[in-house]
Amino acid sequence: MSKVFVSVGMSLDGFLAGPNGGPTNPLGDGGVDIHQWAFKTKSFLEHLRMEGGESQTRDDEIVHHTFDRAGAYIMGRRMFDEGEYNWPEDAPFRAPVFVLTNKPRSPWERKGGTTFYFSDDNIEAALGKSQEAAGIKDVRISGGASVIQQYLNAGLVDELEVQVAPLFLGKGMRLFDHIDATKVKLEIVEAIDSPIITHLKYKTIRV
Ligand SMILES: NC(=O)c1ccc[n+]([C@@H]2O[C@H](COP(=O)([O-])OP(=O)(O)OC[C@H]3O[C@@H](n4cnc5c(N)ncnc54)[C@H](OP(=O)(O)O)[C@@H]3O)[C@@H](O)[C@H]2O)c1
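Above are the sequence and the NAP SMILES. Below is the predicted complex in structure-token form.
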């Protein structure tokens, strides 16, 4: 059955982005270092239409599986703003992407199969459209923090994957600042370590 999942990078001190983020400074000061592990994998670089990277590593398998399972994406407008400025013309999703915003605009179709739909639907309605678009595949809640927190608090996420990078950012945007601890309960599925990143996977328990 199709699942709803989060897969997100985080510094060891709990930030998903550094301070001063925006289109000309994606992920904020120092934040891009959270993803250094992914930039070493072939699968991640391929999605950015870049050459190189290692294949047949556990990290590469995880990146490949994460892209492969997603049939649609949901993201917040601030994450989109950073990506609009920085993603290649052939945006790295190859699937429908539903952007939550209070200022909707016309869909934006990119080369390679990605279309961005801008919606002021509530999060349940946006998820319904994403599930319909994804079919038998899963829906990835891509970020940022605001959107991930809303979907977790609403009990709409089945699996939470966090890639914990071995670094401190000190300040920035916290991944779990507004989680309602009474509503979100987790069970460990697995923890996988590589020399450069720690993958934590949880399933959520309905409360
Ligand atoms: N470390 C990682 O793996 C990772 C992954 C993804 C993102 N990020 C980072 O996360 C940061 C952005 O996170 P963020 O929390 O600031 O912003 P965000 O979640 O990306 O976007 C927030 C915006 O989305 C819209 N929105 C959110 N919920 C909505 C709702 N229920 N209905 C209508 N619109 C809604 C609003 O846009 P309007 O203001 O237009 O109404 C809101 O201002 C970026 O720096 C990005 O680089 C990191």
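Residues 58-69 form the longest helix (12 residues).
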